[in-house]
Specification:
Layout lengths: L1 H34 L13 H26 L10 H25 L7 H31 L5 E6 L5 H10 L5 E7 L4 E4 L2 E4 L2 E2 H7 L2 E7 L6 H13 L3 E5 L10 E6 L2 E6 L7 H37 L5 E7 L5 E7 L22 H9 L6 H6 L4 E3 L6 H7 L15 E3 L1 H4 L9 H17 L2 H17 L6
Parallel strand pairs: 1-2, 1-6, 6-7, 12-13
Antiparallel strand pairs: 3-4, 4-5, 8-9, 10-11
Length: 475
């Protein structure tokens, strides 16, 4: 049933895209004849839409064909549950960028322009906007269905490790993912009868068919015998059931595995982190410099003196609080903040607590609005920090947590940020337990492994919203 719905959605998206592509092709083509006619001889009359279609059907057919060739390569119509809208947006951007090259190339190859440069850009932007809106509406529609407990995908979780219950708790908490745990299957629930595999005494194929199971998640390094796990995997593939694995550690060193072949032998190759690529580093650094320069010129230039005066009038001490933090590759640097506490020799070694008596009146406001972090744009210009990245911790915290939280130091693989994924996810403020820090590190590790331009823009947008609304987790 679910697969039929996915097929319908697949063709619905394709139909909508073809419809938009044809309609706006004819609209802008008519505008071309009506307002952007470039030939020396005058037009006797403006052609009708039917006449335009009859004259330019070859170019239109070529547009449609190339649109779907590009869509196939960027996986535009692949339907994947638990997908984030930022991933959909990324596919749309790639689709439109590649398609725009084709539009201008075909237009330029004709004896007379198919579209003028202005109309060509307008055509591309219109397709982008309508493509974005249509997918956003579909995304919101299915998200609401999932939250109501409808249209959910049944899954099985096989075996158990340290992360299995975390995964199950996540499914319960995040119904919008569209995934429902049908059953957690342990070693005692599995048996064999001759060559048949049984779940709760029922043959494997019959069990998954009757319960409409769509996917199996296998916990790595659990209690079930390896031969049984291999049999489950084999039968799943035979019954066209996809299999995923829950790792025994969320901090393992694997980023993403890619299958490559040496002759006919498959080899798993570990893919690099996104910011290993020099081009990505360059683009991120350019954005950091440009963004920080604009903030310093148009915001800090007048706001700095005002905040400095308020701090001076509120309590004695320096305007800036300068503290050693660990940066890229663990190298220490001087991190700048507006001083929000009364001067004390313990400020550099003792973390902020809830209702901390050291925080001044103006300091509470600066922390609530995150204005205390503004001087760190200077750190960005010095190349010590980035706009977005894992927040830099106190040196004493780094020394403590790197020994008790696995993969902690992976956060030093990139420059620390003024804001980060942990902050917009709500993992900021007081650290009341090791679990609080573990949530931060888990989010930081995700950022390092999954960095993208769109992820950075999303974090910046969410940070601005937090500053406007006020962050309840800020202390």
């Amino acid at each position: 049933m679910q697969k039929k719905k996915n097929v319908k959605l697949h063709f619905l998206q394709q139909f909508i895209d073809i419809l938009f592509l044809i309609i706006f092709f004819l609209i802008y083509l008519k505008l071309q004849y009506q307002y952007f006619w470039t030939e020396k001889y005058p037009l006797e009359k403006i052609p009708t839409y039917f006449e335009l279609l009859k004259s330019h059907y070859k170019a239109l057919f070529l547009f449609i064909m190339i649109w779907f060739i590009i869509a196939k390569n960027v996986s535009l119509y692949d339907i994947v549950r638990r997908v984030k809208f930022v991933d959909i947006l990324k596919k749309i951007i790639y689709q439109i960028l590649y398609f725009s090259i084709v539009v201008f190339a075909i237009s330029g190859l004709k004896t007379s322009d198919l579209f003028s440069p202005q109309l060509g850009i307008a055509y591309i932007l219109t397709l982008f906007i309508f493509d974005l809106i249509s997918r956003l509406l579909i995304f919101i529609y299915y998200r609401k269905l999932h939250i109501k407990g409808q249209d959910l995908s049944n899954i099985l979780v096989i075996d158990e490790n340290d992360n299995t219950n975390r995964f199950i708790d996540l499914l319960v908490e995040r119904k919008d993912l569209g995934i429902r745990l049908f059953k957690k299957i342990e070693k005692k629930d599995i048996s064999t009868d001759k060559d048949s595999l049984l779940f709760f005494g029922k043959e494997f194929r019959a069990y998954i068919s009757e319960n409409q199971i769509e996917k199996i998640f296998i916990s790595q390094k659990g209690d079930i015998d390896k031969k049984l796990i291999n049999l489950i995997t084999q039968l799943s593939e035979t019954n066209l059931l996809s299999v995923s694995y829950i790792p025994d550690s969320i901090y393992n060193g694997i980023t993403e595995l890619k299958v490559v072949y040496i002759d006919t032998l498959p080899i798993l190759e570990v893919k690099r982190f996104p910011l290993d690529l020099k081009f990505n580093q360059l683009i991120k650094n350019i954005f950091d410099i440009v963004f920080s320069s604009l903030v310093c010129v148009f915001l800090l230039s007048w706001l700095y003196p005002i905040i400095a005066l308020l701090i001076y009038l509120d309590s004695k001490g320096p305007i800036l609080f300068i503290q050693k933090r660990n940066g890229l590759n663990g190298v220490e640097f001087d991190c700048y903040k507006f001083r929000t506490m009364r001067a004390s020799k313990y400020n550099s070694i003792k973390a902020t607590e809830r209702n901390d008596p050291r925080v001044t009146k103006i300091g509470k406001f600066l922390r609530k609005t995150s204005f205390d972090e503004l001087p760190q744009f200077i750190n960005v210009l010095k190349g010590e920090m980035s706009i977005v990245g894992p927040r830099p911790h106190m040196v004493s915290q780094d020394q403590y947590y790197r020994d008790i939280i696995n993969r902690y130091n992976l956060r030093h693989y990139v420059k620390p940020g003024i804001t980060g994924l942990s902050q917009v996810k709500g993992y900021r403020g007081a650290i009341d337990s090791d679990e609080d820090m573990e949530k931060r590190i888990r989010t930081d590790v995700y950022y390092v492994r999954n960095w993208s331009y769109l992820l950075d823009f999303q974090i910046i947008y969410l940070t601005i919203m937090l500053v406007i609304k006020g962050d309840d987790n800020a202390i």
